[in-house]
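Sequence only, no structure available. Ideas?
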Amino acid sequence: MEISNTELLEKLDLIEDGKLKRAGALCFYRKAEKVISGCYVKIGKFEGSDLLYQDKVRGSLLIIADRVIDLIYRKQRYPTTRKQEWRHTICTGGSEGSCV
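Reply:
I predicted one. Tokens follow.
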């Protein structure tokens, strides 16, 4: 089945009146923070209450998802030589974002 990009975006409800909605921009626009401020993911590693490292991932939601998975994999795959429990905190958004 062949479908144009515009038809696909319409079926996914990502465009309206020929313009990309915010959801579409977040999915595909590389500088999503220009559309929605605070569109990034922070990943931090804590030992007790001490922050050992923190990374901030920016881009479209598709890029962010890919980079976050890659970042967690790389940091878990090659941990420091000292044995420690790896616990990651992922925060979305700016100062009002939520963490898990």
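The mean pLDDT is 79.
Hope that gets you unstuck.
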